[in-house]
Amino acid sequence: xxxxxxxxxxxxxxxxxxxxxxxxxxxxxxxxxxxxxxxxxxxxxxxxxxxxxxxxxxxxxxxx
Length: 64
Description:
This protein is mainly alpha-helical. The chain has one domain. Helices cover 80% and strands 0% of the residues. The chain is elongated and about 55 Å long. The relative contact order is 0.10.
């Protein structure tokens, strides 16, 4: 699998969060960590492997 685009997005997101932290001094570190965790989840979900995992989970919980 090619993880380079996903790593690029995550690194760019970290840089943007760092710049936001520098501009807005009152922003807390735990708020930035929560934003980073949500960003990682979104990047993981919108990849082929993440979508396959969600499909398998939905098929597992379906009752016929």
